[in-house]
Specification:
The protein is α/β, with parallel strands linked by helices and 221 residues long. Helices cover 39% and strands 21% of the residues. The protein has 2 domains: 99 residues, no CATH class; 71 residues, no CATH class. Strands 1, 4, 5, 6, 7, 8 and 9 form a 7-stranded mixed β-sheet that branches. It has a two-stranded antiparallel sheet with strand order 2-3. InterPro entries: VWF_A (IPR002035), vWFA_dom_sf (IPR036465).
Length: 221
């Protein structure tokens, strides 16, 4: 089985603190759903996710942070990437700006570094979850996503990386589609975080494609 390296990018900007779902801030709901989701991921580490390594990044409070593995922005052994069977994500806190572009830049670097360390061919995926528009680290609107979209297009052309972008309410649809293409962009009508994490799991499976993730979302409203 070809190994798969997955970077999961989670928006932890201030909007995840101020937006509510089910009477609680979105980040609180996300933490609860992650706590329920992680055991399923670890269980699949011996099944559908065998051979999958995750690196989890957040962008928001504190800038861009690696929250998986040992928390360092390194693809070396013991760094950001961990097997699905051992994935842990600490409780997340929201606030600050939306440095989405910097997070994707780091994800691309980590994936390139991890593929270079692999003994053979490997698939790589970026799974982006956001509810706003990209900013710089100070919160100013940023157009840096435009050159980034060209870099991602080149990565797709060389079949190095698949990009799945999940837009929560408030996400900039134009930006998300530019980064992930129309096929790879999934607009979520509500803050259904359980459905979102199920879709992330589907996007991490071995033979998945965009249509399968779309089918999953259509059957898990």
């Amino acid at each position: 089985m070809e190994p798969r390296f997955v970077t999961l990018l989670l928006d932890t900007s201030d909007s995840m603190r101020t937006t509510e779902t089910g009477g609680v801030p979105a980040v609180v709901a996300l933490n609860r759903q992650l706590a329920a989701w992680l055991p399923a991921v670890r269980a699949e580490g011996a099944g559908a996710l065998r051979g999958v390594e995750f690196a989890v990044l957040t962008f928001g409070l504190g800038g861009v942070l690696v929250v998986s593995g040992d928390g360092t922005p390194s693809a070396a052994a013991g760094g950001a990437f961990v097997p699905a069977a051992r994935l842990e994500i600490p409780e997340l806190t929201a606030g600050g700006a939306t440095p989405m572009v910097a997070a994707i830049d780091l994800a691309l670097h980590l994936l390139e570094e991890r593929r270079a360390l692999a003994p053979g061919p490997a698939a790589s995926r970026i799974i982006l979850v956001g509810d706003g528009a990209p900013t710089d680290f100070e919160g100013n609107p940023s157009d840096e996503w435009r050159p980034l979209a060209l870099r991602l297009a080149r990565a797709r052309e060389h079949r190095r990386t698949q990009i799945f972008a999940f837009g929560l309410p408030g996400a900039d649809d134009t930006v998300m589609r530019a980064l992930a293409t129309d096929d790879g962009c999934f607009e979520l009508p509500g803050l259904d975080l359980a459905g979102l994490l199920g879709a992330v799991l589907a996007a991490s499976a071995e033979e998945t494609d965009f249509s399968e993730v779309r089918r999953f979302l259509s059957t898990h409203p």
